[in-house]
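Sequence in, structure out. Go.
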Amino acid sequence: IWIWKRFMEKNLNIMTSKDLAIFNISEKHKSFTITPQSTGSRTFCHILDNFDFHTYELCNNTLQHKSNKVTHNHTFRLFPNHEDYKLIMTGRNPYNRVVSNFRRSLQSKKHINKNFNFKIDFLEFVYDQFYSYTLNSLIKPNKDINSYSFKRFFIGFYDTSVTPDGFFERKIDHKIRIDSMEDDYKSIDFIKNSDYNKNGLLDLALSKKIGLIKKEVLDAYNIPLNWQDYYTQETADIVYKFCSEYFNTFEFEKDSWKKI
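Output:
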């Protein structure tokens, strides 16, 4: 898995240390990005490398230029004077994202679980994501466990402390959602009007779907391809309870887990 991931990311700068605050910023377009995990961030960074975005590091509350290339990262912070820039942020339907995390958990196992039961194992996975017994021992007194569980899911288990309070009060000027990528990319003027788009290179980049789960995993566990097939009312209610603010911000419907 490590070799495969390195192969897929070989043309990107990679930020691996959770202690660094790395940003991709374009002075030309007066924009910066936030790319949480499992939201199409690698594809996004490949595309941004064609639009004058550079890497900056936040040091002593000051931005320092580090590279003329885009750096793939999951920094979830804001920098001084961020209000002067438009925010482009990648997103994903939380129902879809939980399924993606579940599939990745299966892919990370060294051996196939012969006692695997799709419905039971997914139900337990959802409960563990948001109701883990370890949460009570990890959060600080007087902190909202619902908020902590959401951050753990949204940012990642080890990075919850860096999430700015009231983050969603910051306007997201352009939302790039996996569920509507082509339309969302082309809603940004400097991408829509570019030769990169007009020459078909954007469509080509979006067709590559970097980071897909291995087909062998789907076959070995005989699990559905469509993420909507994973849900019952019980599991959908849990995800929505903890991610309702995210649903509202990124304009996803509460019942989007139901097949039309």
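Check: The longest strand covers residues 54-59. The longest helix spans residues 233-249.
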